[in-house]
């Protein structure tokens, strides 16, 4: 390869046409060959120097090869090429001959004579020579120019890719075609294969037997003086796939079916027929169906178009056809399908055909079930709780003109239906073929009422734990489904409207236990409940599109007990004391009382001691609870308290002090005590009556619990207290 020259930077800006015979007959050589190039230098020169340059035609800079001096026609070889070039000149003939040994691809191109060096030089006409280096082409590719239609000629083109240089060498390609046996074909032309003047292979009279035959081609660049030009590697094989119009012989049904034959199937049996067809180009396959009383075929929707896959039904009876189609035509095969069947029942309620029926409570309901079947079916009516009737159907008229029918009917009457009769009723039919079923949802309309479901009935009374909110669920029996449109509560003859999402929340869940007539509600009080809500009655108004009804319940509190009230001490002796008190709210559960005391000194107090234990609250309104504490020390200061308790907690009264008498003191006699007790009872009754007349809202027990201090007095102070009251 000739190295690039660094002497000139001139770029050719115009296309030059050469007219000498030397330019029209380029020299060609294989790589490593020896080449002689002859140049005729004109006599009329403008400059003192002629330069022969090489233009490789690939866009790279041209290279200086040889310098010829005008004065004496002497020459000088480019310094880098002295070992590669041999120059012979004839001044008289104005000829220069350049011999190049061991040519390479880089030596290919146009060798041109220039009058002058540098940018001022011009190309000399009729003084130049093209050198072509012939190389091995890249593997060609085969392209079909026509379709391989049966009975027609297939024409193939061998697309070559030359690597000879320069790129514009202009050499023609020499094409050779071979078959799968690597035998050259088309030269000379035969009855089957012909290579035309363009190098295309023509395969005559394509037949189906030609399917699978394979052909390759090779190419080489054709140069006049080269007999052994390099040949490309073979192309990828081209395989013949003859194209043709399909025929019935190309189609296969599996399992095999004779045309116009009949297949008998029971309903719900599987029917699978595979339709395959050999076509070129490939055929699309479509199953179509002609139903009873129809005059045309319609496509069958299948997951795989060539496989007829049915779970046979009575409506599938008819003619099935498999059609194979390509761009040249179509063919088909068909068969008849006869079905023994039992069809889905048709259900009517009071002569109306529907899937769901609404009836009014206490109405009479007539159920009808019609089944299209062959042979005669046994028809059974089932209710949500069991079998109503089961017997062979009675013949009834055909109702469709599109499908062959054998209709049979069975009926049953429900007298005076109730809400509980709501539910899913089913008609079942069966014969030797199979069993079928149709369900109908019968909805009995009824007004709202509480269900009898354990733990989900609307109870007349609910208890709430005072430390928690009140929330409970219940199921209402009603249809249509009701809504709670209003909640009003009342206590002590005072009512209030409970606002949703402020005072209460009510959520509901439809179709409890799958039953349309049962609706589950969850009622939650979100406002804070206190003792003012004790025995509060809630009235809920339920409304549906058909009914409106009020249902109510009462709430009771539940929690730790409240501290006792009105603690009174009597009969204080040197070693005992009797204590009376009123029981406060018991928290909604059984409460017990413990009386505890401890000895007081000036410096400290001793631990609490239980003086009376597990005294039961007898729930007697207005009655005192009492306890006698004994074994006390004489003339001693004690601190007492009363502890109320139930399963949810405890409550302690305020501590109160008592001092026992010395050993010589005497307690009041029994008559005085009885008088005191009677006086207290009369006083309580008077206060209670006065409170009812004036306020009518609060009981005397609550008033005394909130406003009266404990009466912690000894015998004399106790008498003075009530004496003062009566004087007033």
Automatic annotation (TrEMBL):
Which GO biological-process labels does this protein carry? cell-cell adhesion
Topology of the protein relative to the lipid bilayer:
Single-pass type I membrane protein
Q: Where in the cell is it found?
A: Membrane
What are the entry keywords? Answer: Disulfide bond, Glycoprotein, Immunoglobulin domain, Membrane, Repeat, Signal, Transmembrane, Transmembrane helix
Q: Which CDD domains match?
A: FN3
Q: Which SUPFAM superfamilies match?
A: Fibronectin type III, Immunoglobulin
PANTHER family in the record: IRREGULAR CHIASM C-ROUGHEST PROTEIN-RELATED, NEPHRIN
- Its protein name is Hemicentin-1-like isoform X3
Species of origin reads Biomphalaria glabrata (Bloodfluke planorb)
Q: What is the lineage of its organism?
A: Eukaryota, Metazoa, Spiralia, Lophotrochozoa, Mollusca
Gene assigned in the entry: LOC106072553
């Amino acid at each position: 390869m000739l190295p690039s020259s660094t002497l000139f930077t001139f770029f050719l800006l115009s296309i030059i046409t050469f007219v000498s015979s030397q330019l029209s007959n380029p020299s060609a050589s294989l790589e490593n060959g020896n080449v002689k190039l002859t140049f005729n230098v004109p006599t009329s020169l403008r400059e003192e120097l002629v330069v022969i340059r090489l233009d490789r035609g690939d866009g790279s800079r041209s290279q200086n090869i040889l310098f010829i001096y005008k004065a004496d026609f002497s020459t000088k070889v480019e310094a880098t090429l002295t070992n590669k070039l041999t120059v012979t000149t004839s001044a008289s003939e104005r000829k220069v001959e350049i011999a190049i040994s061991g040519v390479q691809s880089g030596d290919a191109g146009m060798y041109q004579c220039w009058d002058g060096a540098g940018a001022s030089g011009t190309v000399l006409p009729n003084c130049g020579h093209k050198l072509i280096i012939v190389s091995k082409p890249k593997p060609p590719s085969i392209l079909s120019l026509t379709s391989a239609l049966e009975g027609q000629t297939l024409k193939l083109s061998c697309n070559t890719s030359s690597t000879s240089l320069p790129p514009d060498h202009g050499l023609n390609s020499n094409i050779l075609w071979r078959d799968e046996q690597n035998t050259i074909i088309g030269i000379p032309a035969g009855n089957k294969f012909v290579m035309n003047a363009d190098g295309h292979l023509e395969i005559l009279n394509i037949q189906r037997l030609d399917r699978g035959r394979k052909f390759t081609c090779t190419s080489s660049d054709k140069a006049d003086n080269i007999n052994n030009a390099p040949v490309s590697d073979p192309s990828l094989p081209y395989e013949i796939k003859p194209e043709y119009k399909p025929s019935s012989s190309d189609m296969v049904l599996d399992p095999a079916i004779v045309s116009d034959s009949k297949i008998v199937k029971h309903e719900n049996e599987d029917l699978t027929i595979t339709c395959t067809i050999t076509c070129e180009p490939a055929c699309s396959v479509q199953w179509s169906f002609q139903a009873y009383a129809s005059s045309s075929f319609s496509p069958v929707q299948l997951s795989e178009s060539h496989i007829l896959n049915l779970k046979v039904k009575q409506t599938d009876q008819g003619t099935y056809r498999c059609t194979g189609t390509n761009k040249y035509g179509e063919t088909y095969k068909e068969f008849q399908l006869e079905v023994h069947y039992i069809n889905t029942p048709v259900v009517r309620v009071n002569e109306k055909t529907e899937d769901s029926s609404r009836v009014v409570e206490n109405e009479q309901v007539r159920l009808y079930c019609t089944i299209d079947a062959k042979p005669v079916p046994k028809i059974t009516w089932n209710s949500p709780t069991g079998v109503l009737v089961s017997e062979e159907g009675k013949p009834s008229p055909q109702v469709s003109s599109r499908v062959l029918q054998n209709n049979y009917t069975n009926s049953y009457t429900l007298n005076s239906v109730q809400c509980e009769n709501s539910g899913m009723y089913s008609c079942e039919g069966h014969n030797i073929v199979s069993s079928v079923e149709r369900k109908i949802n019968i909805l009995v309309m009824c007004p709202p009422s509480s269900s009898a479901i354990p733990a989900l009935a609307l109870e007349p009374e609910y208890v709430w734990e005072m430390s928690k909110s009140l929330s409970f669920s219940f199921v209402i029996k009603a249809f249509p489904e009701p809504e709670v449109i209003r909640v009003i509560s009342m206590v002590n003859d005072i009512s209030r409207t409970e606002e949703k999402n402020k005072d209460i929340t009510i959520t509901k869940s439809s179709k409890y236990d799958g039953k349309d007539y049962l609706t589950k509600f969850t009622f939650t009080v979100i406002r804070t409940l206190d003792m003012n809500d004790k025995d509060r009655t809630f009235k809920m108004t339920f409304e549906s599109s058909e009914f409106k009804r009020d249902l109510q319940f009462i709430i009771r509190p539940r929690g730790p007990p409240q501290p006792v009230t009105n603690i009174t001490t009597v009969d204080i002796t040197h070693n005992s004391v009797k204590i009376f008190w009123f029981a406060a709210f018991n928290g909604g559960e059984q409460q017990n009382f413990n009386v505890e005391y401890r000895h007081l000194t000036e410096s400290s107090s001793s631990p609490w001691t239980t003086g009376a234990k597990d005294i039961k609250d007898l729930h007697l309104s207005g009655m005192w609870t009492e306890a006698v504490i004994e074994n006390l020390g004489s003339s001693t200061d004690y601190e007492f308290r009363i502890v109320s308790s139930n399963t949810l907690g405890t409550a302690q009264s305020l501590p109160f002090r008592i001092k026992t008498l010395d050993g010589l003191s005497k307690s009041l006699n029994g008559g005085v005590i009885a008088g005191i007790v009677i006086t207290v009872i009369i006083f309580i009754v008077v206060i209670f009556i006065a409170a009812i007349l004036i306020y009518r809202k609060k009981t005397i027990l609550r008033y005394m619990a909130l406003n009266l201090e404990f009466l912690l007095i000894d015998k004399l102070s106790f008498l003075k207290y009530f004496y003062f009251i009566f004087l007033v």
